[in-house]
Amino acid sequence: MESDDLKLRTKEFAKRIVRLCRALPRSQESKLIGNQIFRSGTSIGSNYRAACRGRSRADFIAKLGIVLEETDETLFWLETQIIPKHLLELLTAECRELLAIFVASLKTAKEVSQANS
Q1: What is the pLDDT of residues 6-31, one digit of tens each?
Q2: DSSP secondary structure string, the chain?
Q3: How confident is the model over 61-106, as pLDDT tens digits?
Q4: Which of 11, 21, 23, 87 is 20 to 30 Å from 80 at the Cα level?
Q5: Structural domain span for residue 59
Q6: For the chain, what is the domain count?
């Protein structure tokens, strides 16, 4: 996947996260978990853009690690099952796909970095 495609995909994911948070029930649990999902889910795209602007391969790897952490955290909160399942199915599937992409990208970047050392 091209970096521009992934930038767009992560931006669309952030928009979906915002819409999810707007649709959450008004309970205390939903509010707390919604805040966590909002913070981690919307930061994936911005951190990925920052990684793409990394000054070196090491900088790219470090920033991509942050992207991976934020994606994994978002998936964690989506899987808590506090939020009604019907609101989450497609979003959770997309989050898992993004996580797999970032895991593979980070692995490849580290392998290339080690090969060039």
Answers
A1: 999 999 999 999 999 998 888 898 88
A2: --HHHHHHHHHHHHHHHHHHHHHS-SSHHHHHHHHHHHHHHHHHHHHHHHHHT-SSHHHHHHHHHHHHHHHHHHHHHHTTS-S-GGGTHHHHHHHHHHHHHHHHHHHHHHHHHHHT-
A3: 999 999 999 999 999 999 987 777 887 899 999 999 999 999 999 9
A4: 11
A5: 3-115
A6: 1
